[in-house]
Amino acid sequence: MSVEHFRAMVLREKGGRTQAAVETLDLAALPAEDTLVKVEYSTINFKDALAVTGRGKIVRTWPLVPGIDLAGEVVESSNPAFRPGMKVVLTGWSVGEKYWGGYAQYQRVKSGWLVPLPAGLSTRQAMMVGTAGFTAMLCVNALEKAGIRPESGTVLVTGASGGVGSVATAILHKLGYAVTALTRHPAKQDYVRALGATEFADGPQWAEVPRPLEGQRWAAAIDTVGSSVLARALAEMHYGGVVAACGLAGGADLPTTVMPFILRNVSLLGVDSVMQPTANRIETWQRVAQDLPLEKLEGITARTVSLDGVAEACTQMLDGELQGRVLVDVNAGGAVD
């Protein structure tokens, strides 16, 4: 290796507070894992924003290079399945929480965490998708495996202007589903409509705890919000409806009853992206390359930032000032519009 130094964002804990700064490191500072990756792109997810700002208890070891996603090129590996020059993508496995992550120009990771980049996707596109898009595809898979088809009826997507919701809306539309979107920002409806939403759910009732059963409106739902929003989605499911729940942007509580489950045969499916088995990861990434309309990725990606712009973008995400995805170009010298 001829690389002596590289840039990385490092989180340190001082006085019980998180301090984020872009530092210059050398390769010896990296974890002692079996594969060295030259990172090309990362992205900002809700969990990243919580970690970088310190607003959530995400970081489990200090110091930490955050970034739960990365895509790049293998430099060296003791695993013969990952030869130098191979393009790879990494999401989940507690990277960016417990293990050093993608906000660095180089990173050492376990080869078992890596997925070969599927044909048809660049590393840039893969990080436009990132954990959010990967999770969206897992949710669509879950609905399909539960028997939901386009002819079943309308699918509700909550948090539709966010990372997961944006990609889920685009995928569902391409697959022929009718999508109704819920977003708390009416100004973002044009953005979501361009991704394929045909109707919008809104109103003050979405901030309130619903009755145990409400009028039947949805064949299925992908929920990224939790709390009273998920409770209302469950209460409004058709008989035999299915909800794939993957987020808690609105809270971790669930103020509901057993009524939707025992009187309307509703199914609530939990979707986790962190510990998915490798075989399912490979299959899901292949589906992303096939079923996500890649021409919409530029529209889904609201901004591209350098490492220096990550902290500000994380704050903006938590303050609800962003829509869609934020790409991180770890090799850029400054913020890129």
TrEMBL record:
| Molecular-function GO terms, alphabetical | acryloyl-CoA reductase (NADPH) activity
Q: Where is the Enoyl reductase (ER) domain?
A: 20-328
Q: Where is the signal peptide?
A: none
Extract the Pfam families matched here: ADH_N (PF08240), ADH_zinc_N (PF00107)
Instruction: Report which superkingdom the organism of origin falls in.
Output: Bacteria
InterPro entries in the record, alphabetically? Answer: Acrylyl-CoA_reductase_AcuI, ADH-like_C, ADH-like_N, ER, GroES-like_sf, NAD(P)-bd_dom_sf, Zn-ADH-like_protein
| NCBIfam families the UniProt entry points to | oxido_YhdH
Official protein name in the record: Acryloyl-CoA reductase
Organism of derivation: Kerstersia gyiorum
